[in-house]
Amino acid sequence: MGRAFRAGAPSAKEASGLILKEVHVTAVVVSHDGGNYLPRTLAALSDQTRSADAAIGVDTGSTDNSLDLLREAFGPGNATTFHQAKSGFGAAVRAGLQELAPAAAPSGDSRSVEWIWLLHDDAAPAPDALAELLHAVERAPSVTVAGCKQLGWDNDRHLVDVGLSTSRWAERLTLIDADEVDQGQYDARSDTFAVNSAGMLIRRDVWEQLDGFDPALPGSGDDVDFCWRNWLAGNRVVVVPSARMFHVEHRPHGLGTSSAARKAQIHLRLKHTPWWNVPFQALGALFGAIVRLVLSILVKEPGYGFSQFTATLAALIRPVAVARGRRAAAKTRRVHRSVVRGLQTPTREVRANRRSLLEAIRPAEDSAPVSDLLAPEPSGDAADDFAALATNERGWVGTGAVAAACVALAAALVGLLGLLRSGAVTGGGLLPLSGSPAEIWANASTWWISLGAGLPGHGDPFGYVLWVLSIFGGGDANASMAWLLILAMPLSAVGAWFASGALTAKRRFRTVAALLWAGAPTLLIAINEGRVGALVAHIMMPLLLLALVRASGSAIGQSSTAQSSTAGASTAGAARRGESAVPGRLPAPLRGKPGINGTPSWTAAAAAGLVMAVVTASAPSLLGPIAVAVILAAVVLGQRGKTMWWSLLPTLALFLPYGISVLDRPRSLLADPGLPLAFDAAPLWQQLLGQPLAFSIDGGLTGLSVFGPGAAPWALILALLIGAPVLLLAVASLFLPGKRTALARVFWLAALATLASAWLVGHVATGVNNNVIVGPFTGPAVSASGMLLLGAALLGAEKLFSASRRASDPARRKLPLRRVASGVVVTLLVAGPLAGMGAWAAQNVLQPSTSTGSPAAPAARQAASSLGAPRQVWPAESGTLPATAVDRGQGPERTRTLVITSGEQGAFTSSLMRGAGTTLDSLSTIASARTIIGAPGREEITSDDSATASLRRAVATIVASTGVDPRPDLEQLGAGFVVLKAADNAAQLTASRIDAVPGLVAVGQTDAGWLWRVTPRGQPAAGAAETAHRVRIIDAQGSTVGTVPSDDVNVSASVPSGEEGRKIVVAERSDPGWTATLDGKQLQATTSGWSQAFELPAGGGQLEIRYANPWAVWLGILQVVVIALTVLLAIPMPARRSRTGMSRDEVSLRKEYSSV
Amino acid sequence: MSDEQKKNADDAPQPAGKTPVEDKPSSKEKSRRSEKPSRSTQGSRSSSKGMITGVLSAVVILAAGGGAVAASSMVPGPSGGTSTDVQQADVPAGRALGVCPEPARLVNGTVVGTDADFSPVSTTATSALNAVVLSNPAGTVPGSKVTALGGGNVAEIAKTPTSTPTPTAGPPVLAAGVASISPVTSPTVVEAGPIGNEQASLAAHLSYSATDGDLRGLASAQCQPPSNDAWLLGANTSVGRTAVLNLSNSSETPATVSLDLYGYGGQIQAPGARGLLVAPGTTRSVNLAGLAPGESQLAIRVRSTGGPVAGTIQQSVLRGLAPGGVEYLSPGDGPSNLQVMSGVDIQDAEGIKALSAKSGFTDAVPALQIAVPGSTDAVVQVSLYGANGERKLPNGGVVTVKGGSVATLNLDGVPAGSYTIRASSDVSFVASSRVTRGAKAEDATDFAWSPASSRLGSQHLVAVPRDGLRSLSFGVPEGRATVSYAPVTADGKVGKAVDMDLAGGTTSVIELPAKAGDSVIAGYVVSASGDPVYGALVLGKQGRNDVSVVAIQDAAAGLEKVPVSVGY
After folding, report:
1. Do A772 and B199 touch (CB under 8 A)?
2. End-to-end distance of chain A based on CA atoms, in angstroms?
3. CA dist., res. A421 & res. A419, Å (int)
4. Which helix (H) or strand (E) holds A1134?
5. Which of A628, A843, A879, B370 counts the most CB atoms within 10 A of its CB?
6. Which of A656, A611, A449, A406 is nearest to A1107 (CA)?
7. Interior angle at CA A507, CA A806 and CA A725, nearest 5
């Protein structure tokens, strides 16, 4: 220590003979991997006209030769290393000073004034810099900190900063415009809020007094903070414009990142505010961070938004550092805080500066010429994109889409006659929906599945899809379901038309694709069998493909074939290298517009995420294949695939709570939503042709006797007509050399992988309805592979016919052969879907309308497997339950209804319905898969648990009518009504037998079947209007002594006082998740048989029963946040943005922190 | 994986291969012109290589697809849906019930004259109720009692057991509870609770006999379990014949009964036959003459909604001033393509033939009555099996019955003997047979109806009256069968079973002894094995022409199961 002091002392004495006070300057050079810049910096230091009296070097653990350079320059004794690289510049300076140049004792002679001059490794002072600085400080003793004018390292005319300022929000500001040239315009500046730490001259005693830089600010903001405290200590800070410093801008791996700046900004705010304002500042910062996050997502810069958000959080979660900083600041503060107010920049000026920055900043140097960017390009990011897709002289581009949609709509209207006027649709996998969106939402988000006797588990993700559907229908979910069935085909057509625009610019192929998708057998079968999940997945799948293609920037750019060819080439090239297309090396790197030509699109990724969530919720069996495909694509594409990661988030968020609740029974994850419906899975070759259901070659067409089995293999002919042309074109796309072959191959691989995985997954049984065990429907997988093969076919078709077009151009009039061939192919392509739709519509018209209203028992698979499926969806003519039962079911009683359907051979089907009857949204895949056990392929139904056994026993007791009272079981099940449904006369006898069952009072025959009311047992007040309640109070002997009104799941009611030993019984399966409180006091949970019960004290009070999952709230928040952010991200921003791809904030920050 | 690698390798030349297309000079192209030659030469070299790998990868992809299709066709694919057996739900056993009619009594409003000789009131009328309740194989007799229909205990047969020992392996140890009540004054209900989950085996029998008055003769009925649907045949409302339908509702639910009446000319529309309300614990009597007057052959279908009812018809005949007998008509088997009636006892064939010619005596001959509920005409093939085998009917045994009507086939050409009648058709029908006694017009006559019954299984319990002539008649239409019967004595013991081998096409009659050992016989436990056996209990009085036939009722249900599946 002493040695270092002595080393510096003689030179100081030499240099300060003229002035009154001896000035002693110690230059401190801090380096970190600055080997590239240090030589010039050190040379500049030694070239000073007034050289420093002492110079020490501190190296912060560089990996290059920085330390050697410092040792060489200052001598081994004056260079040290400081290994806590992370603690930053200030700490390094402090450590260096302490080790090499300790402060002189305060008792030292007053004639000597010690200064320290801070230098960065990448900032070279001009030769007269130190002299100018000293000159300035000598004139004004109150100046304790002086700084230099910062200019560019390579360009000494380029202004970096001339003094610093802050906004009211403690943002570090230079207020220098982009590319501002130093013309001496700021040379009049003197007092300033702060100066850059590079070349900062500080009086040593002030440095010691202020305790150096704040260790909590390792990089950016430390200079501002130090000067701030300096001002508050009653000293001045000046900038000396004549002292110039050449500073490296945008140094790689620098500390001046935007998130560090944000962190510093928050820290400064908390540090320099009155104590009472700290919490408000913290809250404000948090709020601001959220707003910034949302805004950044809106402008499609989510990465920036998140880094800012996390930086804010990081700044807020270190109260110790803030407290330490505040303490240090308070110790040295001499004047009021408001002193610095005048030096801060008013908000208006900050805004003006920002605006000018934005206007001035040029597009990044790698951007293409403006003329290309002004051309209208479809990207999905702007509303008018599709209109711009193909603007040419042949009239409106959407004609094909409208034509295809009209054809599809006509077929749908004919085929689904009678649905339009209907209230609710039922049949097949379909049930009516709940009346209000709120109920659908409750069923979707519940943690207690209100089905039958109830069971723990989260609602299906598909419930949210139904909710959205009900919102589209203005709250009437049943009407929108009918409309969905009718509009499914036109919507599919339009979706496919849009999606094909990403692959081909040829209108005729887009129209063909629209028709093919609208007439796909999967869709027609999904409509006829009421498989809503498969139907929604089919409609959304083209949009998912479109969004994913755009998210990775693989969509074709322009309608001109030449350009699209180059775009394809660049896509392929980029895909190979796994990095973003490097400009200048590829033929036509049209950069800038996201979604095409290798530019990833956040909007498309977010849209893909939303659509993927819908598709996977509708067809959970596709969750695995899609997720794997997207992850693989994102990994392979690397930087270009970064946006695709986001597209996984909404699906993840949607499935997370559901997934948690099916951890013990993962097969539910594969189950299709809706009523489990048996089907006959097609072999793979038929699935490749687009047929989900097996057909025998000469099985004929379903419902069309003219094309019945016999004369010709009509089934095979139609299947080939629909599937074969597409398949052939898809094969052609593999072999034809040319653009986008890679994409075709990816499509093929994905299609085959989807089919293979679906084939494997198909072995897993996922649902039980009555005595039928079903697996996941093949339809979604066939849809997915069909979509991919159709994509490949489009590529193939374009290759075939665009190549021929160009080749035959000169000889077109002579040789129309290729045109004829093209026409024939298009005709063939169109003939398939048209024939398919025609057959479907005809079949539905000819099919006699079966009886409706009663949910038919799941039909056994047809023996003769003809092509297509008979129509099973019909308008529901009456409610599922009689009105009386519905009243009580939805009233405070929440009475359930036991519905018995008499079937063939004396078998009975039963269901315990709640409310207005079981609805589609109240169905649960967890419930339907719950009773399956066994290895895939050998599944069976488990033996009953006691609740199911109770239900079965009650039904047996009622239908056998042996004079046994079924009420104990019915009471525990909460059933107050019994309904018998039957189609045949045999039920009449059953009905008259049931009349004799003790406790059942016949109400009569209703539209929904015979109805009986269950009279309550032994209740003293049991009047004629009394009925079973969901929640009841039993006494110690187990007989019901009272009832309690309840909601669907929770209970909130007052309970009268009674005798000891009472229990409150909820007609739900017992589960640890149930809790009850009486006047806020927790009740002891117990059971009554299989039902949940709580011990009730003698005194009454306000009873609250809840079903709670500890994760519910957090998962809910997570879901909302993820989905909301994705929606924000998916909203196209029509506003003009800076073409650098950076948001306003980031642009200005880049500028501000270009040289920290 | 290898596909993707190939694909990646193949993509390399793509950008280069495209260079010839870029002929259009544009500002950005110009700047790059200088690079072009080197790239295109390199490109053409690797282009052919790329072409080969491209084709190869395409072939590999297609081969993978083809391979997957081929492989999947060799192993069983996913089925999509399999049906499992519907789970059987145990039906909780209810009480076993036997609802007995009240002793025969005169119709209200019958004028009771002063002449003692021709008084319609029977002074000698006796009635008896005999009930037998069988134990479970472990020997526990279920709790059982006899109560009046309207409530009120009449007699207790056995107390409800406090514990039910589990049946041990080995031959069952049977016991019985027996009750005998005489006289009977009102409709009664015999009931027995279940043991475990099995319904108790119960039989009760009401017999009535009188030697004077209008209701002279022997009438008896098995106390029947109430039902919601029953067929009663043999009613006659022509002059002098009185048919009173008694509907008893022993349940706690009101019963609404509708009667479908079928006569000779087809279905009879009677306004009063609908919506007859039978309150719980009451009997409602309906004089059938009020609904269908003058019908000599009347079949009635009793349907009830609400509580099940037990219906019997008290049929009595008065030819001028001479009583022609009295009988309870009990429900027989429901409509079916095959009906078998046993215990058709024909005596004095010659006398019957003579009697049938007399006016007013058409219903005094044995006959088979057939009712066809449906609208299709039924061609019924009738066979008779006597002691020595099948007897041909004089008219060939084929009778055509109009749909919706009732027809009677007189058996006046059949020689004496005990017969089993088998009637079959391709249309479902119901049938019952009339048995008569007394071949002389001046003698007292009596009649009985043997309704069609179902084939015997194991452990049918038959309660028998304690006096009079009693015989069991078993018929085996074809094949060979074994019947075993064990007496149940009044002290509650079940005697040793006697096995009897029956040849096909024959009817065997077993005269029942009055006593087994020291104790009076109260009933029998009858079991059959082999080909179908049908049985009936034929009752008579020593030295009188009284007759009554009671079909052997179905055995207790045992453990009943109903297939119940649970849906949503």
Report:
1. no
2. 30
3. 6
4. none
5. B370
6. A449
7. 85
Residue A733: closest C-alpha in chain B = B58
Say what the pLDDT of residue B254 is.
Answer: 84
CA proximity to B381, closest of B344, B340, B422, B409: B422
More confident residue, A642 or A597: A642
Residue B312: pLDDT over 90: yes
- Top pLDDT among B471 and B7 is at B471
Query: Are the CB atoms for B459 and B201 separated by under 8 Å?
Result: yes
Instruction: Tell me if residue B147 falls in helix, strand or coil.
Output: strand
B68/A684 touch (CB, cutoff 8 Å), yes or no: yes
Residues on chain B touching A906 (C-beta within 8 angstroms): 562-563
Chain A neighbors of B3, CB-CB under 8 A: 745, 749
Among residues A929, A447, A942, A443, the alpha carbon closest in space to that of A666 is found at: A929
Q: Which two tokens stand for residue B173?
A: 């140890």
Parallel/antiparallel/unpaired status of strands A79-81 and A54-59: parallel
Nearest CA-CA distance, residue A328 and chain B, Å: 59
Residue B9 has pLDDT above 50, yes or no: no
A627 in contact with B, Cβ within 8 Å? no
Task: State the average pLDDT for chain A.
Answer: 81
Helices marked H in A736-816 — which ranges? 741-761, 779-808
Residue A537 φ/ψ, nearest 5 degrees: -60, -40
The rounded Cα A549 to chain-centroid distance in angstroms is: 17
Question: In whole angstroms, how large is the CA radius of gyration of chain B?
Answer: 38
Query: What pLDDT does A738 receive?
Result: 72
**Coil, strand or helix at A554:** coil
- Of A588, A515, A535, which is closest to residue A557 (Cα–Cα)? A588
Is A573's CB within 8 Å of B15's CB? yes
Give pLDDT, residue B113.
60
What lies within 8 Å, CB to CB, of B502 at 6+ separation is B474, B476, B480, B481, B482, B483, B508, B530, B533
- Does residue A635 sit at the B interface (CB-CB below 8 Å)? no
pLDDT one-digit tens code per residue, A934-993: 888 788 888 888 999 999 999 999 988 887 888 889 988 999 999 998 766 667 778 878
Q: Provide mean pLDDT across the span B136-160.
A: 86
What residues contact A405, with CB distance under 8 A and at least 6 apart? A490, A493, A494, A514, A518
Summarised one tens digit per residue, pLDDT across range A911-932 is 999 988 899 999 999 988 888 8
How many whole angstroms separate alpha carbon B472 and alpha carbon A302? 96
Q: CA of B88, closest CA in chain A: separation in Å? A: 9
Using one digit for the tens of pLDDT, what is the confidence trace for B69-96? 888 888 877 877 788 888 888 888 888 8
Helix (H, G, I), strand (E, B) or coil at B301: strand
Closest Cα in chain A, distance from residue B150 (Å): 17
Find where tokens 């398939």 sit: A832
d(C-alpha A802, C-alpha A613), whole Å: 36
What are the angstrom distances between the C-alpha of B122 and each of A901, B117, B208? 53, 11, 11
Residues of B in contact with A775 (CB under 8 A): 78-81
User: Rounded to the nearest 5°, which phi and psi values hold at B173?
Assistant: -105, 105
Which A-chain residues 1036-1075 have CB contacts (< 8 A) with chain B?
none
Cis peptide before B183 (omega within 30 of 0): yes
A952 interfaces chain B, CB cutoff of 8 Å: yes
- What is the complex's ipTM, to 2 decimals? 0.73
Least confident of A589-593, B124-128, B203-207: A589-593
Q: Which two tokens stand for residue A386?
A: 């599709």
Closest by CA to B221, choosing from B89, B301, B311, B106, is B311
CA of A650 vs chain B CAs: smallest distance (Å): 28
Does residue B486 contact residue B523 with C-beta atoms inside 8 Å? Answer: no
Contact across the interface for A956 and B564, Cβ inside 8 Å? yes
A526-581 per-position pLDDT tens digit:
999 999 999 999 999 999 999 988 888 877 764 333 333 333 333 333 333 333 33
